[in-house]
């Protein structure tokens, strides 16, 4: 009897071991698809209104993935990124409600796992607080922007995105020398497998910003 029970437990453990990696692999594949779709939209030459529509569709897709994975922060982070990107493409006061939605989703993801995707929620929140207008129009806040961006850097000190967005923030605050330092770190960041389009687009932005800083210093 004990032997039979032991075999059943062993069989159950084998089944769990077989099923769990498949679920994780499926989530990873879904996330990569969202990441790659985001990069295609973001770095395309399509008109802003078309990008806003496509980012909205991507946000819906990411929200559905997040709903199917309630214990995972990663799809929530991408839902927030898609919403904030939609807000950026839409522009104007009409984008503020989308930015607020993005903030709410990203803050909720932090409660599940603040380190998910190497702290990308902090990078996105910092960028939102930096770029959204302040009171009384919006919720922009330089102190919160700096706090989130610096937290993102602690979690991913050599990452291309946290260094780039922190450098953007620093340039706006007149901290040019430190901004250049972080732009160069971003420029030297290791390429991310499967994120070739995003990395190429970001490197172009880094080069453009370094060129702008260099031109201003002449």
Note down, in words, how this protein is organized.
It is built from nine helices and no strands. The protein is mainly alpha-helical. It folds into two domains: 153 residues, Serine Threonine Protein Phosphatase 5, Tetratricopeptide repeat; 62 residues, no CATH class. α7 runs antiparallel to α8 and α8 runs antiparallel to α9. The longest helix has 41 residues. About 7% of the residues have low confidence.
Summarize the helices and strands and which ones pair or pack.
Elements: H1 2-42, H2 48-68, H3 74-90, H4 96-112, H5 116-131, H6 142-155, H7 160-172, H8 176-187, H9 196-216
Helix pairs in contact: 1-2, 1-3, 2-3, 3-4, 3-5, 4-5, 5-6, 5-7, 6-7, 7-8, 7-9, 8-9
Structure described in brief:
With 218 residues, the chain is mainly alpha-helical. 79% of the residues lie in helices and 0% in strands. The protein folds into 2 domains: 2-154, Serine Threonine Protein Phosphatase 5, Tetratricopeptide repeat; 157-218, no CATH class.
